[in-house]
Amino acid sequence: MSKRRVVLTFPPSLVELPITYRLVKDFDLKINIMRAHISPKEEGKLVLEVEDGSTEQVEAGLRFLEEQGIRVTRLSKEIKWDQESCVHCGACTAVCLSQALYMSPDWELDFDPNKCIVCELCVTACPLQILEATF
Ligand code: SF4
Ligand code: SF4
Question: What is the CA(126)–ligand 2 centre distance, in A?
Answer without folding.
Answer: 5
